[in-house]
Write a structure and sequence with these properties.
mainly alpha
Length: 98
Amino acid sequence: RARLRRHLARGKTLRWHIDYLLAAPAAQVVDVAVFDEEECAVNAATPGRVPVPGFGAGDCRTGCGAHLKYLGPMCGEKSRTNAAHRLSPCGHPVASSQ
């Protein structure tokens, strides 16, 4: 959770891939999912396409193509709700950033 707070903070030193992505003026965090499982297991269970091969997976030891997935256009409450369900394919709890 501390890492999540750091990534969502404004005005931080840009260090990780996600920091550079979130620094873009058009970047918007729609939802945040918090899981007890390892990042690779959640990534494997999350549908979507990989927009940038290798993004966020530089230290991945399980062979993930990336730790970033594109889920489709996000606009309106219905899309945010649908995204939360896609990020939670196995019934894991999803914490909203809103």
